[in-house]
Amino acid sequence: MVAATIEAALLKLGEPALEERLEACVNKMLGWYCGDGAYGDGDFFHFDFYNSFVIHPMLLDTLAIMKQMDNQFEPVYASVLRRARRYAEIQERLIAPDGTFPCVGRSATYRFGALQGLAQISFMCELPEEVRPAQVRCAMTAVIRKIIEAPETFDENGGLFDHVGPMIDGRPIQELAVGASGQAVGAGKYPTDAAIMHVPNPDGIKPRDLDPTKDPADDFVRTGFRVPLIIVSPFAKPHYVSHTPMDYTAVLKLVEKRFNLPSLTARDAAQADMEEFFDFSSPNLNPPSPASQPINVPCDATRASGVLPSP
Fold first, then answer.
1. Among candidate residues 228, 222, 229, 232, the one with its CA nearest the CA of residue 284
2. Which of 37, 249, 256, 301 is the one with CA 20 to 30 A from 43?
3. CA torsion, points 152, 169, 226, 243, in degrees to nearest 10?
4. Domain map of the chain by residue range?
5. What pLDDT digit, counting tens, does each position of 94-143 carry?
């Protein structure tokens, strides 16, 4: 549905779009309908909140634009809307009076974003008669408060709390207590965390825009909190996970070493060269074939409506 949503947005903006991709994606999604307002994310049903923050919102928004372009899509949109209203009703029933709701599946990491389906139907003023707008406002307010006020969810600056502290030059990695205090309570989880971190000021220039009355002292000698890095390469070691702390200037270090170039700054000079991720002696030259995608399917509203199962 991501591809269809992009094409629908291009149409809405008056730009050229691959209209055949719209119908192909919508048809595929409609074919995965399981009943009672829920779609499978593929051939098999997964009990999570993917219906809420991806499938229903994207289907509704995409079909809303498609029916503006061609009123033959009205029946399809009406059916999808009925299903979304039913799913929103189910979501509202899953919220307990204290603001908790079932934490299931991969979607739990999105916290109250997992209730986007309910929020969208409420925003569209399309709630079922059995669900009053006040119910939804109270329920979702309780959910948001419950999550925001939970310890170790957000840090003192409003970001998502990470129990592993930033890399600070001259110190080892620290495990943190709670987001509100940021108190270091012990060494990091992996042996490499215990090593002294090397994230020096890149060029020796101190920050010039700090307010000494309210900003913490800093000298560009720390990183932010962790973000993931995924290596896609024929030389990448399969199933390999690194536990070596490094920042993104390590990518520069790899390029500099490969082409025998000098370091740009003291920061990339201090980083690991990332060679632990790779096996240059045994490249995988047989990647899996990408899934085929139709590119010449006619944009036919009757075909889209013809695959709709009964709601």
1. 232
2. 301
3. -110
4. 2-150
5. 999 998 888 877 766 677 888 999 999 999 999 999 999 999 999 999 99
